Amino acid sequence: GDSVTQMEGPVTLSEEAFLTINCTYTATGYPSLFWYVQYPGEGLQLLLKATKADDKGSNKGFEATYRKETTSFHLEKGSVQVSDSAVYFCALRSYNTDKLIFGTGTRLQVFP
Amino acid sequence: SAVISQKPSRDICQRGTSLTIQCQVDSQVTMMFWYRQQPGQSLTLIATANQGSEATYESGFVIDKFPISRPNLTFSTLTVSNMSPEDSSIYLCSVTSGSLFEQYFGPGTRLTVT
């Protein structure tokens, strides 16, 4: 079945460092891909999305490109802030369903 | 986007009891979803609830344990029945909204079973 694999955390960075969180997927057809963020004590927020190959999703300085050839959707940010500390979830939605399949989440900790 | 509220936000319950979680959306939506997030874990889909039909449960989840109601297009409830400590989790409601079927989540209900 379809699945999402994320790099394990925690990822610990200093403020203004470059961030990459790896995400790869297995799916039949052409899934849509998402990154969600969960700040401490809060629910999930949609961070960005991409619905077809080579699409780049972006929001709040974060970016991710839908790479079909490598089945990847890595999350990047050029300069992280302390306020970016949260858990980040990669997810996919198969082309024929509304159900989301989530990765295990990656905790990001940014220190001043 | 859709604005989703859940009640209660948190609760502490004794084993063997039941808790009903409410999910309210600020607009009419066709599909609503219930997820469970166990401590330190990812999200697992419990069931999909469409208005006017029985909920569809994922493997490992049954209606007797997690009965769901969907009386209209803006509201749903999830009941966690005969609770045990293993049911301690965050329960999240979500909906799809918009032409791109983006999925939005409520703030969650943090349940602790003692």
Question: What does this 3D model show about the protein?
Answer:
In chain A, 37% of the residues are buried. Chain A is mainly beta and 112 residues long. Chain A contains no helices and 12 strands. In chain A, the strands form 3 sheets. In chain A, strands 2, 5, 6, 10, 11 and 12 form a 6-stranded mixed beta sheet that branches. In chain A, strands 3-9-8-7 form a 4-stranded antiparallel beta sheet, with no helix packed on it. Chain A starts with a strand and ends with a strand. With 114 residues, chain B is mainly β. In chain B, 0% of the residues lie in helices and 54% in strands. Chain B contains no helices and 11 strands. In chain B, a hairpin with a 2-residue loop joins strand 7 and strand 8. Chain B starts with a strand and ends with a strand. Chains A and B meet through strand 5 and strand 6 of A and strand 5, strand 9 and strand 10 of B.
Features:
heterodimer; A: mainly beta; 6-stranded mixed β-sheet; 4-stranded antiparallel β-sheet; 0% helix; B: 114 residues; mainly beta; 7-stranded mixed β-sheet; 11 strands
Please tally the β strands of chain A and state the result.
12
Any idea what the radius of gyration of chain A is? Answer: 13 Å
Task: Specify the number of helices of chain A.
Answer: 0
Euclidean distance between termini CA atoms of chain A? 41 Å
Helix percent of chain B reads under 10%
Bin the helical content of chain A: under 10%
Category from helices, strands and their pairing of chain B:
mainly beta
Shape of chain B: globular
Beta content of chain B comes to over 45%
